[in-house]
Amino acid sequence: MLSVLRLRRLVRQVPLQTSFIFLFLLCILSVFLSSYFLYAVKQKLEPSLAAGRSADDLYVTPSRPLPFLSGVGGTLSSDGSRTDPVVLVFVESPYSQLGQEIVAILESARFRYRTEISPGKGDMPTLTDGQRGRFVLIVYENILKYVNMDAWNRELLDRYCIEFGVGMIGFFKANEKSLLSAQLKGFPLFLHSNLGLKDCTVNPKSPLLHVTRVFSGPLPGDNWTVFQSNHSTYEPVLLAKTRSAESTGLMHTSVVQDLGLHDGIQRVLFGHNLSFWLHKLVFVDALSFLTAKRLSLSLERFILVDIDDIFVGKEGTRMKVADVKALVETQNELRRSIPDFTFNLGFSGKFFHDHSIPTHLGYAVAPHHSGVYPVHIQLYEAWKRVWDIRVTSTEEYPHLKPARFRRGFIHRGIRVSVCVTKAVLSRWGIFVAIANNTLYGSKLSIFLLCQKSLGY
């Protein structure tokens, strides 16, 4: 007690100016210590040459797929019989772009889902119904919302994933506030952000691949994140080089698969959003792999390329002999991969009557799809009576937009197929159509083109 009184008396005797000087020196010291610590950590976390993989390593690295752990004591199970086929999607807001893109893919594939705002310290949605899990997969629009979750909710979610064998998909898109290098909280995984990448490559040894095929190409944007880890639980799915790297530069992982060896939960983490078209295919494959193919798309596809107005181009733009030969050569080349592939050529009936062009009378398209839906009874009656039409198409049923909600139907014995994608007078028509989710979202893809777009 006496020593405390002496200390108080000593403090009172110190001049105010001396106290301010002491506090100033203490602040300067703390700034130097913080700067030294942050600089040392950044140097430690920057991608090193040893952290990358050479292109040759991609073809020899073995994959180690891990069965899901489920039940008490880690019983192996992958049939998903204890969970409902519903995806739980945690979004940052109901209007976030990435969240809407995730939902669009799930809806296009006819997968059931439920969206929730990512809880910080709020309540977690009910995950079980008795002895049955309500969700077969967890998707986080922002993986940081998961790693920074409060301890109680984090434990509930992790325990659910381990007990019911539920996997997780997460996205990390860097912004101007993101640290250039950091460790993902609670994981032996380092993130290096705001990078420009090039020469994207799919790891052909990844057990994740189903729809996706080996591909190499450019990556848009300068805000990519790559993953680095020495733990055996992490394997690359997509790799790329930094733009500053030489042609022989090492590859860094932009999409990583967590095999579950660290904590018993399998995950797939993306270093960007879904704006890169290849990420959409990998996302679909991740849905399939992490749900043991319960949420999986068939590899079977039906493709129709309909080229309308084949004869009505302006003078100077009409097809010539060389153009027709090129079209036939393209058709034959596509038949090597697609059996019996044939371009559908649309033209005015006047040419049919004047030049005896061979036609398939069972299929017709009304001008602008008029009268197909809403139904015009006289059109259907005339089609059946005059030409015995059996198939047509429309974009309008039940609504024009969004396209993923369109459906087909049968009326008066005529099958009305759904036209999901329409690429007319577009220089890159077919490529735009592919990028807008038709080939991975539905089994039937109809591409409507005009003759004038074929010259590009």
Automatic annotation (TrEMBL):
<keyword id="KW-0333">Golgi apparatus</keyword>
<protein>
    <submittedName>
        <fullName>Bifunctional heparan sulfate N-deacetylase/N-sulfotransferase 1-like</fullName>
    </submittedName>
</protein>
<dbReference type="GO" id="GO:0016787">
    <property type="term" value="F:hydrolase activity"/>
</dbReference>
<feature type="transmembrane region" description="Helical">
    <location>
        <begin position="20"/>
        <end position="39"/>
    </location>
</feature>
<dbReference type="GO" id="GO:0005794">
    <property type="term" value="C:Golgi apparatus"/>
</dbReference>
<dbReference type="GO" id="GO:0015016">
    <property type="term" value="F:heparan sulfate N-sulfotransferase activity"/>
</dbReference>
<feature type="domain" description="Heparan sulphate-N-deacetylase deacetylase">
    <location>
        <begin position="354"/>
        <end position="417"/>
    </location>
</feature>
<feature type="domain" description="Heparan sulfate-N-deacetylase N-terminal">
    <location>
        <begin position="83"/>
        <end position="290"/>
    </location>
</feature>
<dbReference type="Pfam" id="PF25119">
    <property type="entry name" value="HSNSD_N"/>
</dbReference>
<keyword id="KW-1133">Transmembrane helix</keyword>
<keyword id="KW-0472">Membrane</keyword>
<keyword id="KW-0812">Transmembrane</keyword>
<dbReference type="InterPro" id="IPR021930">
    <property type="entry name" value="Heparan_SO4_deacetylase_dom"/>
</dbReference>
<dbReference type="Pfam" id="PF12062">
    <property type="entry name" value="HSNSD-CE"/>
</dbReference>
<dbReference type="InterPro" id="IPR056793">
    <property type="entry name" value="HSNSD_N"/>
</dbReference>
